[in-house]
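Is this the right way to post structure tokens for a design question? Let me know if I should format differently. Anyway, here goes:
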């Protein structure tokens, strides 16, 4: 069993091989030149995309810094807003406390009702002997 592996040539290797050999030269020269051109365009497009993304990140960072500077400049108003939002939290805590109390009361009521519906053990002795005789 013989295994034939075909080695793929890079565009620059194909170009140099095309210039070296005369029989397959024109085809390899053309394919090598086109391959180098495509690689160059792909690399340039990647570079341009990376530059665009980095400029977007820089623009967003500038906007966030400007927003932080506005918040610092308006610090008294920002603190007042924070204090009013804390006051709104108290009714939520009160509602949560009432809900916990209602659940605890319901659990206690359920326990009391369940115990009252269970029959009392009979004070009479059992009618059948508990220990069997061999």
């Amino acid at each position: 069993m013989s295994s034939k592996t075909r080695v793929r040539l890079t565009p620059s290797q194909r170009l140099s091989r095309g210039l070296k050999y005369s029989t397959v030269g024109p085809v390899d020269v053309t394919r090598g030149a086109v391959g180098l051109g495509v690689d160059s365009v792909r690399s340039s497009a990647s570079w341009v995309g990376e530059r665009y993304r980095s400029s977007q990140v820089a623009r967003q960072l500038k906007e966030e810094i400007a927003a932080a500077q506005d918040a610092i400049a308006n610090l008294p108003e920002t603190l007042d807003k924070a204090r009013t939002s804390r006051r709104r939290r108290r009714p939520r805590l009160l509602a949560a406390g009432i809900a916990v109390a209602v659940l605890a009361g319901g659990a206690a009521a359920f326990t009391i009702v369940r115990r009252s519906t269970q029959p009392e053990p009979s004070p009479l002795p059992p009618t059948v002997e508990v220990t069997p005789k061999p």
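Format looks fine. Someone answered above. Worth noting: Residues 25-73 form the longest helix (49 residues). The chain has two domains: 10-73, 80-116.
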